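Protein Record: Sequence and Backbone Structure Tokens
======================================================
Tokens: labelled as protein backbone structure tokens, with as many entries as the chain has residues.
Question of interest: how does this chain fold, as expressed in backbone structure tokens?

___
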Amino acid sequence: MINDGAPLPPTVYPIPKGRVWALLAGALAFVAVGVAFLVVHSSVKMTVAGALAVPFFGVCALIIAQRLVRDRPELVLDDSGVEHVRLGRFTWDEIAAVRVREQWVRNTSQQFIELVLHDPDAYLARAPRLVRSTASMNARLGYGPANMPMSTLPVPAEAVVDAMRRHHPGLATER
């Protein structure tokens, strides 16, 4: 949105480094436990658990470490659209609405912002591989392909939606 004849500066949300460091420490701890299971190998179950844990959590640790090294912002909002580190770039014309959603698993909830897209298939054609691979699961759960978890942002969902409205006042929101 233009404010007094000048465009608004971008709203930038950096990665929450404390959380990312904690995730990295957790992933490395699981790698260490997996290695211990492989070394001790007192049972077949421990050996299998170790053989699965080491590569899985090792890859997780590498991905998390890359996020720290790259130090890219998690989310950037500007007058032309939205850029999310994992979802990619969206223009405001592609976004029909935004929705704050909450998913409950057992006794914990995960809040996220869903970008409701005019043409989800066009987005999926250019989306990162991870988004494409999870799109069918998201659809079965009743969600679209473009979801930003709030656990990776340093502010509450309402603050992000308010910033989106500042950059694009006509943005529709759904509950």
Summary: The helical segments are 17-40, 44-70, 120-126, 129-140, 157-167. The chain has a mean pLDDT of 88. The longest strand covers residues 95-105.
